[in-house]
Amino acid sequence: MTSDSADRLGEAAPVGLVLVDGAGLVVHLNARAEILFGRSRRRLAGQPLASCGPAGAAAAPLALRAIAEGREVFAHDLAVATPDGPMRLAIDAAPDGEGACLSLRPWPESSASPRGDTAASAAAGFGRMLAHELKNPLAGVRGAAQLIAAGADEETRELARLIMTETDRARRIAERWCHIGDIAPQAFTPVNLHVLVREAVRSAMASSGPQVNWQERFDPSIPDALADRDLVLQAVLNLLVNAAEAVGDSGGDVIVSTRYRQPRPGAPAPDARLEISVHDDGPGVPDSLRDAVFNPFVTGKPAGEGLGLALVARIADIHGGGVEFDSRPGRTVFHLYLRDAGSEAP
Predict the structure, then answer these.
(1) CB neighbours (10 Å) of residue 21?
(2) Spelled out in words, what is the top-level CATH class assigned to the domain 3-106?
(3) Cβ 55 vs Cβ 36: under 8 Å
(4) pLDDT exceeds 50 at position 68
(5) Would the pTM of this model clear 0.85, i.e. be above it?
(6) Do the Cβ atoms of 92 and 126 come closer than 8 Å?
(7) Domain residue extents for the chain
(8) 26 and 51 Cβ atoms separated by less than 8 Å
(9) Of 51, 156, 224, 254, which is most buried with the most CB atoms under 10 A?
(10) Which has more pLDDT, 144 or 276?
(11) Residue 1 above 50 pLDDT?
(12) Nearest partner of 164 among 183, 148, 178, judged by Cα
């Protein structure tokens, strides 16, 4: 591509593009950036990015961080106060030589896919009711499991112990909701995601039946997550159970994988670099539910309550992470993003 072609491509871009040097001074910008900054490129050339209006002030720290750390830095849904009223931006900054290249665009994007980061807050508020309804049934289930474990064969006792373990965890979560009407996380600690995911798969297998072919594809190099273990375990289990139910009685594959992610521009939770993905080959998310799948009480199941994905979204939000999905008939993948143990707690 010639220099002239690159210049024309930059001018035609639907986002603001800005190039700064190692000191954070503006070297070049396109026409869309002129609109966002409210000033011409002639006036802005050679000026500190931080002095280029509210949008420039919001972008400057990201540019300097990208330069200092030598890596891409993303910030989305930034509130920017302008003379014409509040504006929300998504800003991506990437090292470029000794300087940085930045992309600025309004947020949310009109093409953004359904995600859990904005829907997560909708899950708060129904916790007291849910906890109250759960407490007595949980106590009854645990009592029955104890009786079974006392006099059954070893295989049955093992299943009874599994029931008691899962019931105790559900009770702990319910108690947190009951106290304040929303999820109250415990102190975040380093969590080995592979041990956690295997525990969740074991629980999901016990309830799904033999028609589901479970597969694990782990990245052994990923670090521990910074998390409330019980809550993340519940989120992963919800995704696994949903995937197993999507496969249905006819059977199919559920694949759970982990990896260290490099967020694409516009992706949710850019600082959450650990990813747990749950893939199924079921019929996919109905078109009618795509925009609200993470909202509470929204479900495509005849006997469902519509709380599972809302809870996943809320747990992701509490952890400074996110959740999103890709779906078409025969392939649905839910992605859960978490911070690693080297991050500061959100």
Answers:
(1) 17
(2) alpha beta
(3) yes
(4) yes
(5) no
(6) no
(7) 3-106, 120-338
(8) no
(9) 254
(10) 276
(11) no
(12) 148
